[in-house]
Design goal:
This protein has about 325 residues and is mainly α. It has one domain: Rhodopsin 7-helix transmembrane proteins (Rhopdopsin 7-helix transmembrane proteins), CATH 1.20.1070. It is about 75% helix and about 5% strand.
């Protein structure tokens, strides 16, 4: 019955060439306040992540596996937030709030590409933290450049393949009816609700593929933290235990924030009521987390702070 209805719809189908981003649906002073908040957060994200990329270049002591992964993470966060925030800020001051079909599909692809790459990278970083605590004397030998490069490359490749599944499967759908995306950027779930075709396969892929990737990387991360906890118990001095914890606390905080919002967004069934919650989760993904990551990871790190002070003294 459903296939017959979709076939009748497609016979009279005029494909859309652009979409309208509904955004936050706020007006007046609240719109101006949100614009300023997101602009400031975006500038913080760019400045803080650029500092992680630039500072190690001028400080050889920061040429370590941990900062290699942080370099990748900073690079990801810069582009991750830039996929969403500039268009969102433009729509705050624009009347039409339009995005082309091609631009919409590019947002879908790069949002999931960069986001899933980051999730896999978190697992690689948890292994790095495990080696740093379990084998501190052999840390540099085990975490060789070749291994770090291989782990980072796998993260990027897996992220690209994961995103390609969703972007290709979404782009091939016919969109003939409403073109109002109930979000502030193009994401898979709100687009599937606009499609004039059976999207059950797309929703299954979203839950199973994204769910499998999220749960797998999360379980790997948890496994390494269980192993780390066993070594922490063996440390007899509180000072030594605190030093070891400080190497993991930033990573653990960001992982909890990232995975919590990912599971909340993509593992729930889609409904009209869920879109407002999805928008809040997306703010955490695209605005808050890219700004907080460098602060949590490195701006509390003594090595990074000292390197930053030396760089300013030279200038």
């Amino acid at each position: 019955m459903n296939s017959r209805i979709y076939a009748m719809t497609l016979d009279n189908c005029t494909s859309v060439t652009d979409f309208v981003l509904a955004g936050f649906e706020v007006q007046g002073d609240l719109q101006a306040i949100l614009y300023l908040i997101f602009l400031v957060m975006y500038m913080i994200a760019l400045a803080a992540n650029l500092s992680i990329i630039i500072i190690p270049v001028f400080n050889p002591t920061l040429h370590t596996p941990m900062y290699f992964f942080l370099y990748n993470l900073a690079f990801l966060d810069i582009f991750y937030t830039s996929v969403v925030v500039p268009k969102m800020l433009t729509n705050f001051v624009s009347q039409k709030k339009m995005i082309s079909f091609c631009g919409c599909m590019l947002q879908v692809h790069f949002f999931h590409f960069l986001g899933s790459t980051e999730a896999v990278l978190f697992s690689a970083m948890s292994y790095d933290r495990y080696v740093a605590i379990a084998n501190p004397l052999r840390y540099s030998t085990i975490m060789s450049y070749n291994l770090c490069f291989a782990l980072a490359s796998c993260s990027w490749v897996i992220g690209f393949l994961h995103a390609s599944i969703h972007s290709v499967m979404t782009a091939r759908l016919p969109f003939c009816g409403s073109k109002i995306v109930k979000h502030f950027f193009c994401d898979v779930k709100p687009l599937l609700n606009l499609a004039s075709a059976d999207v059950s396969l797309n929703f299954k892929l979203l839950v199973r593929v994204t769910g499998t990737l999220t749960i797998t990387t999360l379980m790997i991360t948890i496994l390494f933290y269980v192993l780390i906890s066993k070594f922490l118990i063996k440390i007899k001095t509180s000072q030594g235990r605190q030093r070891a914890l400080s190497t993991c606390s930033g990573h653990f905080t960001v992982v909890t924030l990232q995975y919590g919002t990912a599971i909340f967004t993509y593992m729930r069934p889609s409904s009209e009521d869920s879109f407002a919650q999805d928008r809040f989760a997306a703010i955490m993904f695209s605005v808050m987390t890219p700004a907080l990551n460098p602060i949590i990871y490195t701006l509390r790190n003594k090595d990074m702070i000292n390197a930053l002070k030396k760089l300013f003294k030279k200038s």
